[in-house]
Amino acid sequence: MNPLIAAASVVAAGLAVGLASIGPGVGQGTAAGQAVERIARQPEAEGKILLIYLSSFFFESNPFLFIVFNRSNRIIGVIELLRQF
């Protein structure tokens, strides 16, 4: 494999993961802000609101973390390939 293509694919993968994380980041930030507003309006429901927010964060983050770890293993393989040259 051409080292230039391997290096470009590493950069492209980094940009793809970075740009793909903007939408979920904004969405989770909005959800966190709304959770804080709801707790401020209704303090007695704090436990339920936090449970719902944390559970949604857990379920939304798993696929993203899987993609990051999957890509990081491939990037490590590309880095080892580049070290051969």
Write the layout of secondary structure elements.
Layout: H1 3-20, H2 22-41, H3 46-83
Describe the structure in your own words.
It is a single chain. By secondary structure, this protein is mostly helical. The chain has a single domain, classed as F1F0 ATP synthase subunit C (F1FO ATP Synthase, Up-down Bundle). It has 3 helices and no strands. The protein has helices at 3-20, 22-41, 46-83. Helix 1 (3-20) packs antiparallel against helix 3 and helix 2 runs antiparallel to helix 3 (46-83). The longest helix is centred in the last third of the chain and has 38 residues, at 46-83. It is elongated. The mean pLDDT is 78.
Question: What's the short story on this structure?
Answer:
The protein has 85 residues and is mostly helical. The protein has helices at residues 3-20, 22-41, 46-83.
Provide a count of the helices.
3
Percent of sequence in beta strands: under 5%
CATH topology: F1FO ATP Synthase
Task: Compute the number of strand runs.
Answer: 0
Radius of gyration: 19 Å
The secondary-structure class comes to mainly alpha
Domain V-ATPase proteolipid subunit C-like: 12-52
Membrane topology: Multi-pass membrane protein
Signal peptide: 1-20
Pfam families: ATP-synt_C
